[in-house]
Amino acid sequence: MDELVERVDCQGRVLGVVTRRQAIREGWLHRIAATVCRDERGRILVHRRSEQLSRFPGRYEVMVGGAVDVGESYEQAAARELAEELGIRGLPRLLFSFINLSGLSPHWLGVHEAVVPDAVTSDPDEVAWHGWLTESELHSALLKWRFTPDSHEAFGRYFAFRTAQS
Predict the structure, then answer these.
(1) Residue 156: its pLDDT value, please?
(2) Tens digits of per-residue pLDDT, 41-66?
(3) Are 77 and 69 in contact (CB under 8 A)?
């Protein structure tokens, strides 16, 4: 069964419940929660998506995330996705959200951050490989590796946000 999501407008107000497949097919805004995972040394977790995933198989990602379910907050969805994909329990911190036009379809992307342990237990059905990169290494990897379409924009905004905060 396709997951249910809330169709939202340009201000993030809920318009109704639809399937994620329908939201993507029709180009309707819906919400996605994603988390940049850092370790205690500040490195960023990068992973390669499993080959059997329907969306962007084998591509690299800077964030862990997925669709916000009906009735969920960005934070609740981000925490659920961390648990499902990496076996990590905790509540990531929402940094900002924006309308992302670079994925399969337009969506609101809630970008979170979490400090997580070095040793994560990734779900092999979702994650084929993961590793820790410094910001410099990640900037180089973004130029060389095949990342999901929204990784570039999301990480660029994340990096700009962190730079503005320091």
Answers:
(1) 92
(2) 999 999 999 999 888 999 999 999 99
(3) yes
Instruction: Yes or no: say if 94 and 9 are a contact pair by the CB < 8 Å rule.
Output: no
What distance in Å separates the CA atoms of residue 73 and residue 130, rounded to the nearest whole number?
27
Cα dist from 48 to 21, 60, 86, 130, 154, whole Å:
23, 4, 13, 6, 16
Instruction: Say how far apart CA 80 and CA 74 lie, in whole Å.
Output: 10
The helix (run of H) or strand (run of E) holding residue 7 is strand 4-8
The SS3 of residue 109 is strand
Task: Give the model's pLDDT for residue 164.
Answer: 94
Does residue 47 contact residue 127 with C-beta atoms inside 8 Å?
A: yes
Tokens of 74: 């960005």
Put simply, whether the predicted model's pTM sits higher than 0.90 gets the answer yes
Distance between CA 51 and CA 127 in Å, rounded? 9
C-beta atoms surrounding 60 within 10 Å: 22
